[in-house]
Design a protein that fits this description.
Number of strands: 4
Largest sheet: 2 strands, parallel
Radius of gyration: 13 Å
Helix content: 25-40%
Shape: globular
């Protein structure tokens, strides 16, 4: 799942889609501001996260909040991979 403010902000979308497809996955792009696409909503509809590996990347504050939501939704600590970065 990629969350961007505007459609054109989804950098490397082609590469992400190719990697996901090769591994039997998919990519979903959520477009909207933080108020339009709250962090918690990113995990909606994903089913049982207790058996999933989750990678979260973005600004440090986003990674902190998204990681807490992921853990609350059942992601195991060792299955949560966080990569905060600043532009």
């Amino acid at each position: 799942i990629v969350r961007v403010r505007r459609e054109g902000d989804a950098v490397l979308l082609g590469e992400l889609t190719q990697l996901a497809t090769e591994r039997g996955g998919s990519v979903t792009v959520l477009v909207g501001s933080r108020s339009e696409v709250p962090v918690a909503s990113i995990f909606d509809g994903l089913g049982d996260l207790g058996r999933s590996d989750v990678w979260i990347a973005g600004p440090p504050a986003f990674v902190t909040v998204a990681s807490a939501v992921a853990r609350a939704r059942g992601v195991r600590r060792r299955a949560l991979h966080a990569d905060p970065y600043a532009l």
